[in-house]
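pasting for the record
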Amino acid sequence: MSCCRYRLIPAASHGRQSRFQPSVMLASVALAGIVALLSAAGCSPATGPTPTASTPPTAASQPGPPAVATLPVPPEADELIDRGGLIRRSETLAANDDFGGAAEVLQKLLVADPSDVEVLFRFASIQASQGNLDEAITLLDSISASDPEAGLASLGEAAGWCMLLERYDDAEARYKKLLTLAPDTAIARRQLAYLFNRQGRRHEAAIQIATLCRLGNVRQEELHGLMSLSDGVFDDDVSAAQRPDGELPYFPIGKSGQARVEFTRLRYAEAAELLREACEDRTTPESIHAFYGRSLAEAQDEVNFLRWLAGTTPATREHAEFWAALGTYLIEQHRFPEAARALGEAVRRDTTDARSYRRLNQALVALGKNDEATRWFDRYVELRKVTLASNEIATNDAPDSAAFADMVSGLENMDRRLEAILWRSVAGFYRALAPAETAKLNQDRMAMANSTQAFGTESERLCGLDISQFPLPNLDSLIAGQPARWTSPESIATIAEAEITTTPEFKNVAAEIGLDHHYRVASIPQANRFSIYQSLGGGVAVLDFDRDGSPDLYFAQGHADPPGFIS
């Protein structure tokens, strides 16, 4: 593959030929996912770099470089003392697949000047082309990150090679170091988001994608990834095979990545078990430790939840999923004031958390704050609409314009303004928007990207709810096993009075929630001669099956046919 990723910056002249000539390009490397790092004349950085795959390369399994015309090799004797000539000779040798010869030429230059960063960089690329990625990374690590010519490029390319070798911690450290030096480096943020998503670190990935949104360098698949941060972004073999050419799959990385898959599938106990050993040993990032607690809370594993809570640190408590876990537990314990505060802290950090929306609605209803509760239920409905629209767009090659309209209006109603503008741009791509309209959208995006309202103000994220009116949970009392249930006499009296004096209001929401059930006694129409069980109807079961705080409905059909018969 031959494209520009991390570009080396030309040095100012110091009385000799510039180290990085604009006419010089490194030979294409022989590993899929490794690209040339020096640009040819007129070559510009790739506008949409693709995250690297995680499969470790081997010299035997990787494809060779693209076919190139055989070039004549300049005579070596004429260039022994000519740095520029030797560099050109190494390029020619590499272009003719003589990587060993190219390495020998570069080694001669390194003997003369071991600190020559351009030659070090080129030598590392030759090592990578031969499958020696560990050696190549070591070479790039010898280049100072602050070097004005090759520092950033070395960090970025070494990080990419670490990804290929599945040295994920090393890749993360290098990408983060690069971003401290150049915060607007989109490819580094994209690679980090890709890595974090595959590791189940969804909220950390979202931070990187939000910055890509502000930079105006975000992809549609990344925008989809902002819809529900509690759930995973992952592929199986079938979905990976359906991805367009050039798109890398999101196979889960490690137990944390697989745990996010299980959590998405509502298999909370299984998710917690996958995380248990590493979290108890405290060898996971704090975001995953918070995720572990949430899995325990959803699984209603009180014993292990309290053990987890006792081991949390201030760093753990910075994460949305810590507060979502705590709010879930407090709802179960009927400690509604503290639950409202915890869940408010969760949604303040994560405006995509539908589970916490519903539970916050539940806590506010219990506290007699019906107006506030209604606002949160309405927000939940908007989030559900946006999620369904996102799913429809993602699964169609030519998405319906109505899905885009639902997406944009829902995001605007939730004050996620920058995302709404970006989705307008995506819709415009499918509709072949006129250049003037595209330019106007880009102006709107740039103005919003620099605004504090891009992702909503704190008050907007909280639907105007002042969460400071609710007490912070007393963690010590929870861990010590103090009386758990909420027993405020004033609140109990308020609820009791409401139960006596309030007339219930009912609303038919079947169409709104997608409920379309018709009872049939059999798979074919039957006008008479019913059996007794057929005449009694199918019945309905109401339970919180997935433990998300909302009742689930199960409707039974007639039993005269095989179990596969459904309405």
